[in-house]
Amino acid sequence: MLWLLEELESIRRFLGMGGDVLMMLFVLTLLLWVLVIERYLFFFLECPKLVKSTIGHWQDRPDKLSSRARHIRIAMISQVSLDVKRNLPMIKTLIALCPLLGLLGTVVGMVQVFDVLAVTGTGSPRAMASGISKATIPTMAGMVAALSGLYFSALLEKRADRVTHKVADSMQH
């Protein structure tokens, strides 16, 4: 239990070193990972039921060859595609925002460094260190969040495409 408190304290210190922008980036990254985990839970728990149900409804249809049946088939495949790709655009948007928010942290930190230079004249390295950390830490955190999110987003996209193709292939006449 003590180690958990120490870890939480180190996270709090890290977030404090990066300033308000890092706190916003933390919330954004937390939302990103909630959505990624939700998609993985969907693929493992709900998706097999959805695929089985959709294919079952198609197999139970007596008419599979008419023009109307083809339109129904397309609609069923589209509905599965929508269900498996839900939240993926939001995940991609959050991934795109992470480095931009990190860049905002860089600008905010550099403004703080320039403020110190304006006040102290030549600039005290000790006084500028806080602004430099506020400039670099959000940039690093934004890049790490975006890169890891990009990797899992690509995996989720491939899985969604695979499920959609599997349903479409299973619903041939």
Task: Name the descriptors.
173 residues; mainly alpha; elongated
Structure description:
This protein has 173 residues and is mainly alpha-helical. It is built from four helices and no strands. The radius of gyration is 24 Å and the shape is elongated. The mean pLDDT is 89.
List the helices and strands and how they pair.
Layout: H1 2-60, H2 67-84, H3 88-120, H4 125-170
Helix pairs in contact: 1-2, 1-3, 1-4, 2-4, 3-4
What kind of oligomer do you see? Answer: single chain
Instruction: Compute the number of strand runs.
Output: 0
How large a portion of the residues is in β-strands, by DSSP E? under 5%
**N-end to C-end Cα span:** 59 Å
Give the helix/strand class. mainly alpha
Total number of helical segments?
4
Order of helices and strands: HHHH
Question: Short description, anyone?
Answer:
By secondary structure, the protein is mainly alpha-helical. The chain has helices at residues 2-60, 67-84, 88-120, 125-170.
